[in-house]
C-alpha cells in the first residue's frame, strides 16, 4: 500500500490556483526529492502533505486513511516538517526547542520521561550540536537555527520527514551532515520528502524524484528516469549535461551559462 495517495488535488491561495489536478503516489521507505522552478508549488505541496494546508478539491490519503481524518497529535507523531523559514522571537533554549519534538509522544499533564531526555541527548550528539543546548534560539545564525529545527524533527521520531529547503542556509559540511542523517533515517524505514533547489544534492541523496512545473507534476519516478537533460531543459530552460560522477558515484548535473528564453 502506498504511504501517500494524492488524487486530483487542487489548491488556490485566494483566487490564484497554484496546484492543479495533481495526482501522485508516494511509497514508504524512499528518499524523495522535489525539484522545480521558483513558484512551481513545491512548498505548497509539502504543506499539503504535512496537513497544514487543506486541498480545495481531490483527496489525500495517508497510510490508507484520509489525511484530514487524523488528529493534529496523531499527525505530529507520524509526520515531521522542517519549514523553509523558521523564526521565533522567544528566547527558548535549543534544548527546549528540540524537546518540543517529543511533545506529541508525551501524555498530557506529564513531564518528559527518561526516554525523552535520552532521545534529545543523543540527537544533540548525532546532529553535531553539542554546546548549543543552552543557547537561546533567537540568538543563532540562520544556518545554526536551521540545524536545530532539523534536530527537533529528528526528535519527533516520525514515519515521514518533510524537508522544505532544509539545507538552504548550510555550508557544505553541514549540508552533507544533515542529508546523511536524513538518509540514515531512510535506511531505518523513514520516508524523507525533501524540496531541494540544488539538483546535484538531489542526485546524491534521492532515489525518487518529483519534478514540478506550474503547479503540476511534470515528471516523477526513479531518479535516473527523471534527471535528464530533456526534462531539465523543458522545466528550467537551461542546457545541462547529466553524467555519473567518478568522484561521488552519483549522477551529477553540469549546466551551461546560457539561459533559454
Ligand atoms: N500565502 C500565499 N498567498 C498567496 N500566494 C502564495 C502564497 N504562498 C505562495 N504563493 C504563491 O503560490 C505559488 C507557489 O508557491 P510555492 O511557495 O509553493 O512555490 P515553490 O515552488 O516552493 O517556490 P520557491 O522555489 O520559490 O520556494 C507561487 O506563485 C507563490 O507566489
From TrEMBL:
Superkingdom in the source lineage: Bacteria
Matching InterPro entries: AAA+_ATPase (IPR003593), ABC_transporter-like_ATP-bd (IPR003439), ABC_transporter-like_CS (IPR017871), P-loop_NTPase (IPR027417)
Residue intervals of the ABC transporter domain: 1-239
GO molecular function, one term: ATP hydrolysis activity
Keywords linked to the UniProt accession: ATP-binding, Nucleotide-binding, Translocase, Transport
One Pfam family from the record: ABC_tran
Role: Part of the ABC transporter complex HmuTUV involved in hemin import. Responsible for energy coupling to the transport system.
Protein name stated in the entry: ABC transporter
Amino acid at each position: 500500500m502506498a504511504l501517500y495517495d494524492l488524487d486530483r488535488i487542487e489548491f488556490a491561495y485566494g483566487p490564484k490556483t497554484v496546484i492543479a489536478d495533481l495526482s501522485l503516489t508516494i511509497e514508504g521507505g524512499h528518499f524523495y526529492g522535489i525539484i522545480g522552478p521558483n513558484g512551481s508549488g513545491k512548498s505548497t505541496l509539502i504543506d499539503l502533505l504535512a496537513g497544514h494546508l487543506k486541498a480545495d478539491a481531490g483527496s489525500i490519503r495517508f497510510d490508507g486513511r484520509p489525511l484530514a481524518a487524523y488528529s493534529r497529535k496523531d499527525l505530529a507523531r507520524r509526520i515531521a516538517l522542517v519549514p523553509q523559514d523558521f523564526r521565533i522571537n522567544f528566547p527558548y533554549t535549543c534544548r527546549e526547542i528540540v524537546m518540543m519534538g517529543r511533545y506529541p509522544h508525551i501524555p498530557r499533564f506529564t513531564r518528559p520521561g527518561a526516554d525523552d531526555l535520552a532521545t534529545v541527548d543523543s540527537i544533540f550528539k548525532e546532529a553535531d550540536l553539542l554546546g548549543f543546548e543552552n543557547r537561546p534560539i533567537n540568538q543563532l545564525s540562520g544556518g545554526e537555527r536551521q540545524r536545530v529545527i532539523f534536530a527537533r524533527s529528528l526528535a519527533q521520531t516520525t514515519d515521514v520527514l518533510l524537508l522544505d529547503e532544509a539545507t538552504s542556509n548550510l555550508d557544505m559540511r553541514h549540508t552533507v551532515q544533515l542529508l546523511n542523517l536524513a538518509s540514515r533515517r531512510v535506511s531505518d524505514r523513514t520516508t524523507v520528502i525533501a524540496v531541494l533547489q540544488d539538483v546535484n544534492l538531489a542526485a546524491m541523496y534521492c532515489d525518487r524524484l518529483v519534478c514540478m512545473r506550474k503547479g503540476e507534476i511534470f515528471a516523477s519516478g526513479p531518479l535516473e528516469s527523471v534527471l535528464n537533460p530533456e526534462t531539465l531543459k523543458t522545466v528550467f530552460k537551461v542546457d545541462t549535461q547529466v553524467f555519473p560522477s567518478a568522484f561521488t558515484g552519483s549522477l551529477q548535473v553540469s549546466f551551461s551559462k546560457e539561459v533559454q528564453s
